[in-house]
Design goal:
The complex is a heterotrimer of chains A (about 325), B (about 290) and C (about 240). With about 290 residues, chain B is mainly alpha-helical. Chain B contains eleven helices and four strands. Classes of the chains: A mainly alpha (about 325), B mainly alpha (about 290), C alpha/beta (about 240).
Chain lengths: ~325, ~290, ~240
């Protein structure tokens, strides 16, 4: 009986949610659309990380590298070659994937696991931020995305709603990809690698291949998200692109929402992103205030429900 | 100033920074060696120490060297409480969880400080931070030498504590074999809390010492934390000697990098070194 | 031609010699037992054969091919599977999912894999637990899951590491029955066991290790009467 309710809920809640999401932008003003864009962007980025960290168990702290590379590639190519960011986005994705493959190959070849892997990726992130400040075009001051005034070709829109639908489409894409992966061989292998990679190998799973696949998907999609956001913000600098905060914010969504689950990042972002905004509005505009709450929530989740809130909700719901 | 003097000065600054770094590194490696937890909030404890030192100086005219003595018990208590109430409950969880918890702690501490103090950097206006003496045509900065001495002194005291006292030995026993320690009646939970607290006092000292030469702001802990990671990885997780040597080394490299390379690019070398060590010799370079 | 040939395998860990010039042969269709006191190197031998470790010297030849230095996923694909003594199920996956992993490494057809996995789960008698999370199983159930999981990779040679270890004595005959069924299916078994009754009842041949060296290799009767074996084993054997 409980199972049927859970399954029905699992079908209807997302459907209702999606319907609301689709018609939402026509009923609210720009401020809320902006908020929604951020929320959905973080669902997207969180889900990208979730594939790597949640499903495959590779806790990567280098998401900002992929995100930043995506943003910088499309912007620099637009400035220097007048190349449409749509293609720039794909090129950024490819570049990010190559970097991810390099990081991954080095780490996995030397059998780095757990937080050792996290530290290596963290070191790479730091290196990229320093490199961006000192050697990238724009340097520490950053780059302004050349205005092209509401041209689809140049991925710029006067109406925020278009940006909204783009990110909505992207998030549906990544959720579909995650769902598909989880129910097919790739997902089974990812989870086996997460739970016990040595045993997985003894059962015929080629670890390097599947870890790199996870790494590539995650890095490519994260870079796409980076381009999206920079095209929305119309400005990029080493801070925005590569700072550690970005990675933390990304990881927090699936961590709090439900690591290794499809809806974890959704729940996490729906909870955390608006919370940040509420903090900023009611507690003075000082930067980083919401992070106090994030920190407290993270601590509580780790102590009381380390798998995230979604499993906790499921348990509570199953009991009632 | 000729090139030789620049070299020597850079070296001295580097070594004195090394003194501070080695303290930070020793603290982190002690915590890791005993509890197997990487404390992400390590840098934020240092930030607290720095603000306290600044406040004591501005409000009560207390010399930063003296602040060291105040910071030690303060950070000890903070560290003890954190370990006892936050980390103890999840000691048996995967290491990643503990790391994430300390990350949450970092977020709380740094941003609370941001709320109360704002993002503006503060520095100490202190006359004798530029005191120097001339030795053989080279200008030696006295406070930097004092900092180095204090750092070495504290490290030495810590080493004595760990090797000669009963509590110290109990802590080391717990670090090498928790089960065995339990079976000989050592209060392991207490040892964990002590290790965490004592390891944290190291940054209390480091923070007070460095306040003379640095700006403090709520996020200042980040840089020190990352460098602490590098030191601990290079020196070997849990190795006192390793952290000692690596701390000095990083201090010198970092300072030379800042002096002779453009912008902050010197740091890239340091992170590159960490990656190389993690890949090829994750147990560290100096493990004895 | 022997299915498996181990020639002069030596494995060191730091200063400790875990395997010392171990040489043995296993013929297709045999059930060979591996005995020895704790620390004799039995699991290390399994680990080396299956590619979990690489030997410091020596050769391993399986089905006529050199497999020394290959990865364990490659060796598994060639037909060697093993169970783990310290039972390592994929705790966050169900029993069904656990078993499917081994099948999926050879095919990507989900429906087919599910069906085959159910057969193996049934074979080991875990059908009622098919949708339970592996982390919730009892010791005996985990042992059987280990077997089903390894079997799902369709090995010709199956290395069983202490399948009766820690199992309630009443459950042992069922496991022995399973092993016999495996032989009927045509799988060659190499079995680490502490229970002498189990070993003597199903093994065609027994190999004994002591401190990394092979000290006996023969029929159960020969080995159990071997002076060296008895000496090394004093106090270790339980019937």
């Amino acid at each position: 009986m409980d199972q049927t309710i859970l399954r029905k809920g699992a079908f209807w809640i997302p459907l209702v949610g999606l319907s609301i999401a689709l018609i939402f932008p026509w009923f609210v003003d720009d401020y809320f659309i902006h908020l929604a864009i951020l929320t959905i962007l973080y669902i997207y980025l969180g889900a990208c990380w979730n594939l790597l960290g949640g499903y495959t168990g590779l806790a990567c702290f280098g998401q900002s590298v992929f995100y930043g590379i995506g943003g910088y590639t499309s912007t620099v190519l637009l400035i220097k070659l007048d190349l449409t960011p749509w293609i720039g986005m794909l090129l950024g994705g490819i570049l990010a994937t190559l970097i991810g493959l390099m990081m991954g190959y080095l780490s996995f070849h030397y059998k780095l696991k757990g937080w050792y892997f996290g530290l290596v990726t963290l070191a790479f992130a730091e290196i990229f931020q320093i490199a961006a400040t000192n050697f990238f075009p724009g340097g520490a001051a950053g780059l302004y995305v050349p205005l092209r005034h509401n041209q689809i070709l140049y991925y710029q829109f006067a109406d925020k709603r278009i940006n909204y639908y783009i990110i909505l489409g992207l998030v549906l894409l990544v959720l579909l990809i995650t769902h598909f992966i989880a129910r097919h061989r790739l997902g089974y292998f990812f989870k086996a690698v997460r739970d016990d990679e040595e045993v997985a190998e003894s059962l015929g799973v080629y670890l390097m291949k599947y870890k790199l696949i996870a790494m590539s998907i995650s890095s490519f999609l994260t870079a796409i998200g980076g381009t999206f956001y920079i095209q929305y913000l119309l400005f990029i600098d080493p801070e925005i692109a590569f700072r550690m905060d970005v990675t933390i914010e990304i990881i927090l969504r699936p961590l709090v929402g439900g690591i290794g689950t499809l809806w974890g990042p959704v729940l996490g972002s729906l909870l955390l992103t608006p919370l940040a905004e509420i903090c900023n509005v009611f507690l003075g505009g000082r930067m980083g205030i919401h992070l106090i709450l994030y920190g407290i929530i993270l601590i509580l989740v780790i102590i009381y429900s380390p798998q995230g809130l979604l499993p906790l909700l499921k348990r509570l719901f199953a009991k009632s | 100033m000729d090139f030789l003097s620049i070299l020597i000065q850079t070296f001295i600054t580097g070594i004195s920074m090394g003194g501070v770094y080695l303290l930070i590194g020793i603290g982190l490696t002690l915590i890791f060696g005993v509890i197997k937890v990487i404390n992400f909030a390590h840098g934020s404890f240092m930030m607290i120490a720095m603000y306290v030192t600044l406040w004591l100086f501005n409000r009560f005219d207390i010399n930063p060297y003296l602040s060291v003595l105040i910071n030690i018990p303060l950070i000890f208590v903070i560290g003890y409480l954190v370990q006892r109430f936050l980390i103890n409950p999840i000691l048996d969880a995967p290491h990643l969880n503990q790391l994430l918890l300390t990350l949450g702690l970092l977020l709380v501490i740094e941003n609370t400080m941001l709320y109360f103090k704002g993002a503006d950097p503060y520095t100490m206006k202190i006359g004798y931070s530029v005191q120097s003496i001339k030795a053989g045509g080279i200008i030696l900065s006295i406070p930097r030498l004092i900092i180095l001495s204090v750092a070495l002194l504290y490290a030495g005291l810590l080493h004595l504590f760990l090797s000669k006292t009963e509590t110290g030995r109990a802590i080391r026993a717990t670090a090498s074999d928790r089960q065995a320690a339990l079976s000989v009646g050592i209060n392991v939970r207490l040892m964990y809390a002590l290790a965490f607290a004592i390891g944290s006092t190291c940054v209390g000292v480091a923070g007070a010492l460095i306040m003379m030469f640095f700006y403090v702001h709520p996020y200042v802990g980040h840089t020190f934390l990352i460098l602490a990671f590098v030191i601990v990885i290079l020196g070997g997780l849990g190795s006192f000697f390793g952290a000692f040597v690596a701390g000095l080394l990083i201090g010198v490299i970092d300072t030379f990098g800042a002096t002779f390379l453009p912008g902050t690019s010197g740091r890239m070398l340091i992170f590159g070194a960490m990656i190389v060590v993690l890949l090829f010799k994750p147990t560290g370079l100096f493990k004895r | 031609m022997a299915l498996l040939e181990v020639k002069g395998i030596t494995k060191r860990f730091g200063g400790l010699v875990s395997l010392n010039e171990v040489t043995l042969k296993i013929k297709e269709g045999e059930i060979v037992g591996l005995i020895g006191p704790n620390g004799a190197g039995k699991t290390t031998l399994f680990n080396t054969i299956s590619g979990y470790y690489w030997p410091d010297s020596g050769k391993i030849i399986y089905n006529g091919k050199h497999i020394t230095g290959l990865r364990s996923d490659q060796i598994n694909k060639m037909g060697i599977a093993r169970t783990f003594q310290s039972m390592r199920p994929f705790v966050n996956m169900t029993v069904l999912e656990n078993v499917m992993v081994g099948i999926l490494s050879r095919t990507s057809d989900m429906t087919f894999s599910r069906q085959k996995a159910l057969k193996y789960i049934e074979f080991v008698g875990l059908l009622e637990k098919v949708d339970s999370f592996a982390g919730q199983l009892s010791t005996g159930q985990r042992k059987r899951l280990e077997m089903a999981r390894a079997m799902a990779t369709q090995p010709r040679l199956l290395l069983l590491d202490e399948v009766t270890g820690g199992v309630d004595p009443r459950g042992v005959p069922a496991l022995v029955g399973l092993m016999k069924k495996l032989r009927e299916e045509g799988i060659t078994l190499f079995v680490i066991e502490h229970r002498i009754k189990v070993i003597t009842s199903i093994c065609d041949r027994i190999i004994a290790l002591h401190l990394g060296s092979k000290i006996a290799d023969g029929t159960p009767k020969e080995v159990t009467n071997n002076r060296q074996v008895i000496d090394s084993y004093l106090g270790e054997v339980y019937a």
